[in-house]
Amino acid sequence: AKREGRSTWHAYTADLSASVAERLALRNDLQTALDDGGFDLHYQPLVDGHTGRIVGAEALLRWPHPVRGQIPPSHFIPLAEETGQIIPLSDWVLETACRDIGRLRTGNLSDFPVMVNISPLHFQRSDFVSSIRAKLQAYALPAKCLELEITEGVLLDNAAHTIAKLGELKELGVRVSIDDFGTGYSSLNYLKNLPIDKIKIDRSFVNEVISDRHDAAITKAIIGLAHHLSLKVVAEGVETESQFWFLKRNFCDEFQGYLFARPMPFADFSIRLRERGGR
Ligand code: C2E
Ligand code: CA
Ligand code: CA
Ligand code: CA
């Protein structure tokens, strides 16, 4: 047992140093990607359940690493948040999204909205609202073309501060959604106080909405709650027809998931939108 413990200990220290080296390397690579334009922004359609039309898109960050291939955002975003690199990275995302929105806005697509995920660290900065305003101005975009997705965690601390910021965004005309709804620790109280527009039901509920009656009950309750508060509801991670029909039957407004489309490069999305989009 003693020997086993020793080898475990050795393995453990080896792993630890590997992970420190790994994080350092990744941090350097992230900087290189930031400096050299190594990131991509993909777009996933949001679909209206009644018409089947594309009514919006979520911008999702992609990092095609030159050696390791695609590194998922769930891997590098927490690191970028730790190192502070999330700030220049968020700026790149916003800049790119605004440029792309500008290119989408033709004909009947002049109001087409794109959702951008906002990191709590970015949202908490004192210049957050002015940075959003500046981007809209630089690309001459109407505020309704840009929607921000924030998680419940953002709403937890600094309540007064947060309410003020959301109020400024609302005044500007930028819509805000609560992402991953139902997975945070916050009370439902904020829903009635905050000027938000939409909630996105987390994929973990949608995933088992057919097989787990508790997930089904929670999902129905979230939709009812949102509608009573005059909020729109989006289901994320819709993968099957039966999930879609369940959600549609229970009055979910908009849908996002592999059943409709995976996130795709801007060029592909733009073509698809012209074929199936418009409102
Ligand atoms: P999220 O905001 O909840 O985004 C939805 C995630 O679900 C995306 O993963 C998307 O590709 C995935 N997804 C969409 N439909 C389906 C489906 O039907 N089935 C399954 N299994 N997955 C589906 P992705 O792109 O890997 O992003 C993961 C998370 O990384 C995002 O979760 C978001 O929290 C974060 N993220 C992505 N891009 C950005 C960004 O530009 N800025 C910030 N701050 N965070 C980002
Ligand atoms: Ca999101
Ligand atoms: Ca989510
Ligand atoms: Ca998420």
Output the strand order for the largest sheet: 1-2-4-5-6-7-8-9
What class, by secondary structure content?
alpha/beta
Total strands: 10
Helical proportion, percent range: 40-55%
Q: Strand content of the residues, in percent? A: 15-25%
Low-confidence stretches: 1-6
Enumerate the distinct ligands: ligand C2E, calcium ion
Largest β-sheet summary: 8 strands, mixed, barrel
By DSSP (H or I, 4+ residues per run), the number of helices equals 12
Reading the helices and strands in chain order gives HEEEHHEHHEHHEHEHHEHEEH
Shape: globular
Rg for CA atoms:
20 Å
Instruction: Write down the overall mean pLDDT.
Output: 90
N-to-C span? 68 Å
Task: Report what the structure shows.
By secondary structure, the chain is an alpha/beta fold. It has 12 helices and 10 strands. It has helices at residues 2-36, 73-83, 86-104, 120-123, 128-138, 152-156, 159-172, 189-193, 203-207, 213-228, 241-249, 266-276; strands spanning 40-48, 54-65, 69-71, 114-117, 146-151, 175-181, 198-201, 232-235, 254-255, 264-265. The chain has an 8-stranded mixed beta barrel with strand order 1-2-4-5-6-7-8-9, surrounded by 4 helices. The model is unreliable at 1-6 (pLDDT under 50). It binds ligand C2E and calcium ion (3 copies). One calcium ion (CA) binds at residues 58, 117, 149, 179. This is Diguanylate cyclase (GGDEF) domain-containing protein. Residues 23-277 form the EAL domain. It comes from Pollutimonas bauzanensis.
